Amino acid sequence: MKKLLAVLLSLCLVVGMVPMMAFADDGAAASSDWVYGPDYPAWYVGEDGYDWSEYWKSLDMDERDAYEWWLQHGGHWGGYWDEYYGYVASIGDVWYHSLDNAIEAATNGTNPGTIKLYKDVSYRGTLPLSDVVITGVNNPTIYANIETGANSVNINDLTISGTITTNDGSLFMNNVTMKNSGVDIYVEGAGTVNVPASCKVDSIKINTSYPEGSGPNVVTSLEPVYDNAGKLIGYTSNPTPAVERVAAIGNVYYDSLSAALEAIDDNALSLQEVTLLKNDTINSGTVGENVRLTINSGITLRVNGTLTVNGDVYNYGEIRGNTTGNVYNYVRFRTSPSGASVTVYDGDYWHNYYWGDIVDDESNGVYWLPNGDYYYEVRDGGYIGEADWFRVDNAARTINVSLDERVDDYRVYVEDTTHGDISVDKTRAEEGDWVYITVDPDVGYVLTGITVTKPNGSTVKVERVRENYYRFEMPGTRVTVDASFSRHVTPFTDIRLADWYYEAVSYVYFNGLMEGVTDTEFAPNAATSRAMVVQILYRMSGSPSVSGSAGFTDVASGAWYATAVNWAADRGIVEGRTASTFDPNAAVTREELATMLYRYARFKGYNVSVGENTNILSYNDVNQVSDYAYSAMQWACGTGIIDGTSSGYLTPQGGATRAQLAAMLMRFCNEYVD
Questions:
Q1: Within 13 Å, how many C-alpha atoms sit on residue 521's CB side?
Q2: Which of 138, 253, 381, 431 has its CA 20 to 30 A from that of 342?
Q3: What is residue 419's predicted lDDT score, i.e. its pLDDT?
């Protein structure tokens, strides 16, 4: 096995000497040397894995200008760059340094759309607005007097420290707070102002010079103010006392649970959800059939009479008093070690050896239990289990269970990793046992280090068994297994992370099976010749010495592929196109490639019996499979080495591209070599 892996890694030395013969991987282009921003992949790497920094450098653009270009073309990384470069507003995916620039783009047609304002802005003069929508993010403040024109203006979710004057147009406001010592809004001309209850506006002054029946229109939740002659002179706030938020139905609040339950619509068809937000007392009450009452964590409901539950109650807190019906109490198990197996039985038992039915948990270690007695068992391999009774009585509870370690073996802990996963074949082991580690890097990443550490900080020797498979000998103590992964960036610019063949190209490139056709191109859609495939199989077999010739007249004795062709023909791995010709430069077909791999597997003594029970008759073009290739195609389909090119088609006579060759080589090695 080691010899074969060494051969695979050295294959590129020969393949690289042949024009258009080399093969390779994908990934982002050459990694950038730019230093600003988050770690790789950074903002200049597209979703398809392409590194744009080299392109921008070729245009003599520095990082700052490149980032501006990126923003203008739909990029958006988030708050880091927004704060770093001082962007205050955006329209869609385009960002602006000032609110003025965003308003200009929105009103002149350059970038129409809603302006999102992220930061406080201020103006010395008046800020004119017309035909624009501004929505604040996290409630920023505009320090300015605003004047709206003849068109519609919509302002949402922000604070204005100043006044607003509306001339002829329409002003729509939502969740806007006005901070001003005098009049907040002046309505001039024939303007229309819409001020809902979500706004905090103290006063509105209207131009009263218009004849009756004309002039401005104000739609508001504020109270009108009239002069001594009965003329409307403005609006002022008349706030309704805030309701103490004890209970809620959706976004409507009530000062008691009784009031919330009385407000329930008994004829509603959909589920109505009531939430108890604060401690409360109820003399008696009914939770209707189509009602779910949730009692929040830490909240106590005192019941002087009886709470009748015809619907459901989900209790994260505590109920003190009598209840009838479906009351479900939140019960959580916290175990040490975390992840230990928890089994809960209901209280129905015949004798001490029967604990009733198992109660299903809602998630790992969380249960919703009616009042009653229960029995739990907590188990974890290598620990002494624990079991006990517990009672649920109208109260949520957390049950902490700490298991003692066994003295005859030791714990194997596995750290969380990024860009890949690691797992062990056992979580506990006796001293001297072998513990096996499986490593699974994410696509585009490789393992850069694996450590097994004792509690005192010293490490245990780790041995590599085979590709992504390691082991260590368990010491007389617990250990922690950790691994690190790094991005493998190939030099090819014509391979993208989203390509179906990305992982396969990465595999064959980093394992030395294929290279690029140039230093920066893999040519995934280019054809593969018969000679190239034979050369790869020859190298995979260790490049043995060959005597004699297959007698093909089109295979010159000095050709780079001559030895491989003679070797493969002598062992029945390939045949000529005729008795005297091999046709080395012809594009290999998909059925030829499958046949070469199938015969190579039989030559190596691999188990190919899966093909005997594989039915390929469901493919629409199975009649196009040549007789000599039928068993090979059955085997290739059965092992998953070959897939259909489209729904229901094998395309056996179609040429095998370099990407398809890479995929079949990776699947073959995963099946028989790794």
A1: 8
A2: 431
A3: 87
Whose CA is closest to 653, among 620, 631, 621, 619? 621
Task: Tell me the one-letter amino acid at 284.
Answer: S
Residues 6+ positions from 281 with CB-CB distance below 8 Å: 301, 302, 303, 304
Q: Which amino acid is at 139?
A: N
What distance in Å separates the CA atoms of residue 193 and residue 219, rounded to the nearest whole number?
A: 6
Output DSSP code: residue 442: P
Please give the Cα distance from 338 to 241 (Å, whole number).
49
pTM over 0.90: no
Q: Is the peptide bond before 441 cis (omega within 30 degrees of 0)?
A: no
Residue 90 β-bridge partners: 95, 116
Give, for 524, the enclosing helix (H) or strand (E).
none
Distance between the two ends of the chain, CA-based, in angstroms?
A: 9
CA distance 504 to 443: 10
Bridge-based pairing state of the strands 141-148 and 152-161: parallel
Whether the pLDDT of residue 604 is over 70: the answer is: yes
Rounded Cα distance, 514 and 342, in Å: 50
Cβ(536)–Cβ(665) below 8 Å: yes
Q: Is 57 helix (H, G, I), strand (E, B) or coil?
A: helix
Cα separation, 73 vs 168, whole angstroms: 37
Among left, alpha and beta (phi > 0; psi -120 to 50; other), residue 570 is alpha
Which pLDDT tens digit goes with each residue over 243-298?
678 999 887 889 999 999 999 987 777 889 999 999 999 998 999 999 999 999 99
* Closest C-alpha among 356, 395, 397, 396 to residue 377: 356
**CA 321 to CA 303: how far, in whole Å?**
5
Q: With contact defined as beta carbons under 8 Å apart, do 322 and 306 qualify?
A: yes
Q: Is the pLDDT of residue 435 over 90?
A: yes
Give burial (CB, 10 Å; 0-12/13-18/19+) of 189.
Answer: middle
Closest CA to 481 of 425, 434, 426, 424: 424
Q: Is the dihedral of CA 11, 13, 18, 20 positive or negative?
A: positive
Six-digit token string for 430: 């006796």
Q: Is there a cis peptide before residue 584, judged by omega within 30 degrees of 0?
A: no
**445-453 vs 479-487, strand pairing mode:** antiparallel
Locate 411 and state its tokens.
């714990």
Crossing angle of helices 590-604/530-540, nearest 10°? 20
Largest CA distance in the chain: 121
Query: Which DSSP letter does residue 657 get?
Result: B
- Backbone φ, ψ for residue 393 (5° rounding): -140, 80
Tokens of 60: 């003599």
